[in-house]
Amino acid sequence: MIAVDYVSVIAHVVAIWTIAAMTPGANVILTINSALSHPPRLAFGAVIGVSLAVMVWGLLGASGLLLILKTFPWLFSALKVAGGAYLLYLGISKIRAAWSFKDQPWAAGSHLSLTFFSLLRQAALTSMLNPKTGLFVVSLFSVAMPADMTISLTFVTMLLMGIITFCWHLVLLFGFSRQGAQTLYRRATRQIDFFTGGLFTLFGLKVMSS
């Protein structure tokens, strides 16, 4: 592969994955909610979890494993059911937590029990079980990737996808950890958690029915 082609592939990856990472969805909602309801040092786990999961998706795309999902539709259907069920679980858990929430002296994360690694695991699972992420990766590799995919290009692609995802979710973390956002969340914790839980539930139902 000549250098010009290599640069062209990287440019396509950056353009396509920047749009994909910034598209509102379960990953974005999870990071925003983590930033609102936890101290930044804990919510940072969600940023890491999503970024690592995206790099794994990139590896799956480069290795051709995603083509198996296209070849065997029942496998993709199974992924949708699993992903939708997990989003439903997150949504119902959020709604139940909001329902049982009682007004009390508030501090970020005081009404929750999630740790840094719990948020990391939750974010990674959400991203890995999210079929939309897989579809974005399929689109990326079908549009931007050459037939003679090299190991070095695979590594660069995974790294770029991870960095772009990390940067965007870090922006979300800093933005929704600011005093203004925290004040709003303190005033409307139950309503915001109800809304977030509802979004996760709708995402889960949409994934399972699509």
From TrEMBL:
GO terms for molecular function: amino acid transmembrane transporter activity. The keyword Transmembrane applies. GO terms for cellular component: plasma membrane. The chain crosses the membrane at residues 6-30, 42-68, 74-92, 149-171. Its main location: membrane. It is found in: Cell membrane. The keyword Transmembrane helix applies. Keywords: Cell membrane, Membrane, Transmembrane, Transmembrane helix. Coiled coil: none annotated. It is a multi-pass membrane protein. PANTHER family: ARGININE EXPORTER PROTEIN ARGO, THREONINE EFFLUX PROTEIN. This is Lysine transporter LysE. It comes from Photobacterium aquae. The lineage of its organism: Bacteria, Pseudomonadati, Pseudomonadota, Gammaproteobacteria, Vibrionales.
